[in-house]
Amino acid sequence: MKNTQLQRCIVESIEKKWWKESVVYQVYPRSFKDTNGDGIGDLKGITEKLDYIKKLGVDVIWLSPVNKSPNHDNGYDVSDYRDIMDEFGTMEDFNRLMREAHARELRIIIDLVVNHTSDEHQWFISAGSAKDNPYRDYYFFRPGRSASIPPNNWKSWFGGSAWEYDKRTGEFYLHLYSKHQPDLNWDNKKVRKEMYDIMRFWLDKGVDGFRLDIINYISKTAGLPDSNSDDEHRGKEFYLNGPKVHEYLREMNEEVFSRYDIVVVGEVEDVSPEEARKYVDFDRHELDMLLSWEHMYVDYGKNGTWDIKRWKLKELKNVLSQWQIALDEKGWNAQYLSSHDQPRQVSRFGDDGRYRIESAKMLATLIHTLKGTPFIYQGEEIGMTNIIFKEINECNDIHSIRMYNDEIKRGRDRNDLMKIINYRGRDNARTPMQWTGSKNAGFTEGDPWLQVNPNYRLINVDESLENRDSIFYYYMDLINLRKKNNTIVYGKYKQILEDDENIYSYVRSMENEVILVILNFGQDHCTFTLPEDIKCISCQLLLSNYEVTDTSIKRLTLRPYEARVYRLLSHRVKG
Question: Which of 19, 113, 155, 308 makes an SS bond possible with 263, Cβ 3.0 to 4.6 Å?
Answer without folding.
Answer: 19
